[in-house]
Design goal:
It contains 13 helices and no strands. Helix 1 runs antiparallel to helix 2 (about 20-35), helix 2 crosses helix 3 and helix 8 (about 120-135) runs parallel beside helix 10 (about 155-160). It is an all-alpha fold. The model has no long low-confidence stretch (mean pLDDT about 75). The chain has helices at about 5-20, 20-35, 40-55, 55-70, 75-80, 85-100, 100-115, 120-135, 135-145, 155-160, 165-175, 180-195, 195-210.
Length: about 210
């Protein structure tokens, strides 16, 4: 096909996706975009299905960011997907958390939980960050209680730290019944991320003691 048109590109992208050839799906989606062809809800839906099949969270966020800048609603494109997994849910949650509105990240999280899918550390970090940006620490702690059986306490420490809620991260850390090198690193990294380098240095002797 020497000069593929709009329909030809969409057919290729969709066809690869339907046959679980996810690498080719995303490859042709990118080519289609570079050739300045119009990306519609079918193009985006196929690309997101490819991200889900490849379990590629980063690409998923990029595609959702493209959707958010298009004439289409991210929610409509997401709802039109035949199959969704944790990668596609996390990508949508993180897209809203990073690009706004943050309240949508929380709404999508609730929908994900209601669908029966369990969150992981990536989900948690994005949701806690969304709560922080909304000054909704109470909601963040409620989410913590809801998912405590799913994700580790160390992940909670990292999530709160990433959300610039270092007080909550510290509270979570000292509540832990057992701490190890990973959990100490999570808290120290949280202090560093939030510009509290002196506090991070103060904890290093404890980390060394835990490493022995």
């Amino acid at each position: 096909m020497p000069d593929p048109d709009q329909c030809s590109w969409n057919s290729m992208v969709s066809g690869f996706s339907q046959h679980d050839r996810f690498e080719e799906t995303y490859e042709y989606f990118v080519k289609m975009h570079k050739e300045n062809f119009f990306l519609n809800e079918y193009s985006f839906g196929s690309a997101l299905s490819a991200c889900a099949g490849l379990m590629d969270f980063d690409i998923g966020i990029q595609v959702y960011a493209m959707v958010s800048k298009s004439r289409y609603s991210t929610d409509d494109v997401f709802s039109g997907m035949i199959e969704r997994n944790l990668v596609t849910w996390n990508s949508l949650i993180t897209c809203y958390e990073q690009n706004g509105p943050a309240s949508e990240a929380l709404e999508v999280f609730v929908r994900m939980m209601n669908s029966g899918l369990e969150p992981d550390e990536v989900t948690l970090a994005s949701v806690v960050s969304a709560c922080a940006s909304l000054c909704a620490l109470k909601e963040g702690l409620q989410i913590h209680a809801r998912v405590m059986n799913v994700v580790s306490e160390t992940s909670m420490v990292s999530g709160y730290a990433r959300a610039a809620s270092i007080k909550a991260a510290r509270f979570m850390f000292w509540k832990m019944k057992q701490r190890n090198v990973v959990s100490w690193n999570a808290l120290i990294g949280g202090y560093t991320q939030n510009g509290e380098n002196e506090e991070a240095l103060r904890l290093f002797p404890f980390l060394k003691r835990e490493s022995i």
